[in-house]
Amino acid sequence: MRPRLSLLLGVLLVLAAGVGVNALTDRTEPSGSVSTRFALGEDVRIGEFQVHVHDVRAAQTLDDDGVPLQTSGIWVIVDYSAATTREPAYSPNLGLRDSEGRTYSISSRSPVSDWRVAPDTWTRGEVAFEVAADALGDLTLYVWAYPRTVAEDVPVGYGVTTISLEEISADRVILDEPELLGEGER
Amino acid sequence: MARSADGGRYCGAMSSRRSVRTALRRAWVWIGAGRWRQIGAGVVAGVLLAPVAIAAVGGFATADDVQAQRYAVGQRLDLGQVEVEVRSTFLSAEVQTHALPEEASAWLGVVVEVVNRGDEEVILSRDLLRVPGLDPLQEHPRTTVVVSDESFLVTLSPDVPHEVAMLWPLAGSPAAQSVEVELYPVLAQESMLDPGSILWQVEPLLGVVEVPVTDVPPTLVDEED
Q1: Interchain contact, A107 vs B161, CB within 8 Å
Q2: DSSP label at residue B177
Q3: ipTM of this complex > 0.85?
């Protein structure tokens, strides 16, 4: 009898430990929405990043070192500044989602795509998204502190704002190269 | 044994036939004695008889040559990851001259329109088209450039069509009038190891397009220094 009781006790201990760990992680891990809403023109902290989105605009043609970059869609240009809080890193991942649910990353054709950012040292620049010709209207801009595949699979913080964009610039737009800002500048 | 040793040839044959029959009877009794033995014997018999059954219905006959489906130039085709419209081809050493490998003498360019009809951007697969007829130095295109401005196309946004040239390096300088472009669908599969992430699976040949060789799009020709 005694060996059987010991075996049963061992099994019960393992089950109890499992229930305990589950209860603990339920209380300690974040769940549900962890988005931070922000507005254009204000600082927002997302994970290890500090971000300030100045403006979002649309254009039909970009200029890449004198060569016109045309698209059958529309270029959406995001003008933003970024810094980190603790360690140097590359600028955060940005994403756009249109009202149809189509999601866009910074275009691999964008003359500027990312840059190095440092703790409390702000750098400002512009990046371009290539979106469908009928995508303008209400767009959602995401700022992901991690690569998107990570950010949408597990509950980690991200920033989000809504933009209304209708007007398309007829001018050929040159993206602003990343520029290191002085103290207090955005 | 004693009888066969001192008996005639007839007696020996009779004896061996009898012993075979006896052995078979014993085996039959042994097999029939247990359920698992019966099942095992059935499996062995099935395996041995399967080739006979396959041969009986003509399964080992030589298959007819599979004729690839032919599609027209300019026809829009759904290749899974993207829709593709093959438009023209060119042979030239005057485009992307800095990227032409040393051992190559020219590019084969296949001009296509590609459009991603999904909701998410995709990295354009290098498996969609092949051109084995011109024996390129590599099976997949070395690079893909946008025809209007020579920018490199890596990712495709949803619903933004692009006219691109896929470039294969060639060792010789073939004077081809047309090129057979093979089309391979590329379909999304969910990764079993990493749930939520997508793997792109290349499917068997869908068909071919016979594309005439024409002039290089002027926007792709490098300016002379």
Answers
A1: no
A2: S
A3: no
